[in-house]
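Hi both,

Apologies for the delay on this - the queue was longer than expected. I finally got the NAP-bound model through. Below you'll find the protein sequence and the ligand SMILES exactly as submitted, and right after that the structure tokens for the full complex including the ligand.
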Amino acid sequence: MIETIFITGANRGIGLALTKLALSQKLKVEASYRNLDNSIELKKLSDEYPNLNIIEMDVRSSKSILKASRKLKNPIDILVCNAGINNGKGDIFSKEHNEKNILDVMMVNVAGPFLTIRNLYDNLNQTDGSKVAIISSLMGSQTHISSNAAIYRASKAAANNLMRTISNQFFNENIVVSSYHPGWVRTDMGGKLADISPEESAKGLLHHFCNLKKDDTGKFFNYDGSILPL
Ligand SMILES: NC(=O)c1ccc[n+]([C@@H]2O[C@H](COP(=O)([O-])OP(=O)(O)OC[C@H]3O[C@@H](n4cnc5c(N)ncnc54)[C@H](OP(=O)(O)O)[C@@H]3O)[C@@H](O)[C@H]2O)c1
């Protein structure tokens, strides 16, 4: 039975919508944020819901994740590696593709899920089984035709590759590992013109997470549950 979900980057966008939906479904929610000043709505929710535990955590830092792991109240049934950034739009000549931005996006989008999964491994519910969901992007698919955001695309391709590697490592354990395109979503990252609301994305994602089976490990899914090409 799914009881506890851990969501990174839960203070805004898709992470916040997932948090609200999980709370409405009476799940126990462990929700991470980076900066409390930037997490007013999440803080308010935690005052309202006893089943919401909010935890400071930066996905770029093992120290921060291990500190967070000690504050967890329950074993994790679903771990959602949602935190992500896109700091480089435009083609390869765009000034946004500078060394600092490249390092930052790789640290958050690639090292982030890697360090999160490694450092929260002991918190996963292996007795009843657990599911690890990496929020990637269709932009990381090799089949996606675009010349925009080359480094973000590479980071999400790497996140999908990480998902494959970790799913292989955990294949004989009671842990399903998969990755997701959340849709093009109206968040700070997706912008106002995007296709779907954060609520719509969260609804599809959470429904799929709760119904993941062993056979789904190593696969890349759309938020509606359909399979996507890696
Ligand atoms: N929106 C879309 O259309 C779309 C499409 C495809 C994939 N995605 C992916 O979906 C995920 C969520 O995106 P979103 O649209 O909800 O983005 P968003 O609104 O920009 O929110 C990003 C979240 O990630 C957190 N975050 C960033 N760096 C972090 C770090 N170092 N440690 C911990 N948390 C960190 C942010 O926290 P702060 O508030 O502290 O910055 C925020 O909570 C991302 O992985 C993104 O790449 C989004």
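Main takeaway for now: The chain has a mean pLDDT of 97.

I'll put the files on the shared drive as well.

H.
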